[in-house]
Amino acid sequence: MDVNDLNLFVRIAQLRSISSAARDLGLTPAGASARLAALERKLGARLLHRTTRQATLTEDGLAFLPHAEHVVLAAEAARAALGREQAAPRGTLRVAAPASFARMHIVPGLPDFCRHYPELALDLRISDSVVDLVEGAFDVAVRYSELGDSSFVARRLAPDKRVLVASPDYIERRGRPNTPNDLAEHSCLVVGTLDLWTFRGKGGELIERRITPGLRINDGGAVRDAACAGLGIALMATWCAADELRSGALVPALPEYPLVSTQTLWALYPSSRELAPKVRVFIDWLVERFGRHPYWDRGLERIFETSQ
Fold it and tell me: Are 55 and 83 in contact (CB under 8 A)?
């Protein structure tokens, strides 16, 4: 059996669509259908139920899939063992990433990535909804979260540092809060469901405050813009608000009480899959691009120190 035919079958099973798998692998739908039919004739078994909308596994297909996946992964590992040149990443890499973060910190660097890997096509799906990597047949996902799911392998990309900010105009009109308790007297802006704010007290103790927002928006970039417009105090990730802090459009709102965040930026891929060359080079590129101390945090410590 041809490994390429097995790879086609595996991709159809993942995407539940012959046409989607064909696009993924650079084939025509007719060509993919013909190759799948030829594979079924060789095996003497029907692997998929086909409709105009989707392709689902038959009982024989379900039994055959793990063996096909094993052969495909073994072939990829064998090519990788020959060295970097022979295992040049190719095909389509499906990536899921948060919308605001992707627009600000992944997409601007893609010209550099694509120049290095011209045979690799990217299918980038950006959404702030948490996607199912396995169900969506994604190769890798970028997430900022606490890591708690052992079904994924994760590589740390960068810290997800949070800060409390407001516009100079807002601070001039309403004053700067002195303690977390003072936030009850202020207009607070909340991203999505992040209304439990945790601070580090002057004695090292944790201080939690549940915020009643004056404005709640499910997009970090929109909340940042609302804060710049003087609508209130916002809890922001530094990767989202760093430029505005450096320009002075936003200023620290409560620098004596730093926020505590347990979240981190991770690159995740399913632990059931061996790390393919295309996934490895993308994750390595993200790690190199962001660095141990992310570029977006440069100079922010000085801003917060001078605000205290």
Answer: no
Q: Find out whether 235 and 191 touch, Cβ atoms under 8 Å.
A: yes
Length of the chain: 308
Q: What phi and psi, each to the nearest 5 degrees, are found at residue 152?
A: -120, 150
Residues 169, 302: Cα–Cα separation, whole Å: 21
Question: What is residue 160's predicted lDDT score, i.e. its pLDDT?
Answer: 87
Which stretches does DSSP call E strand in 218-257?
233-237, 251-252
Predicted TM-score (pTM) of the model is 0.71
C-beta separation of 246 from 299 below 8 A: yes
State how far the Cα of 244 lies from the Cα of 224, in Å rounded to an integer. Answer: 9
* 121 φψ region: left (φ > 0), alpha (ψ -120 to 50), beta (else): beta
Over the stretch 227-265, which tens digit does the pLDDT of each residue have?
999 999 999 999 999 999 999 999 999 999 999 887 788
Structure tokens at 169: 């105009």
**Which among 165, 141, 268 is positioned nearest to 224, based on CA atoms?**
165
Give Cα 86 distance to the centre of its chain.
29
Please answer whether residues 172 and 181 qualify as being in contact, where contact means their C-beta atoms are separated by less than 8 angstroms.
Answer: no
The dihedrals phi and psi of 221, each to the nearest 5 degrees, come to -65, -35
- pLDDT tens, 134-183? 667 788 999 887 655 556 788 889 888 999 999 999 999 999 999 999 99
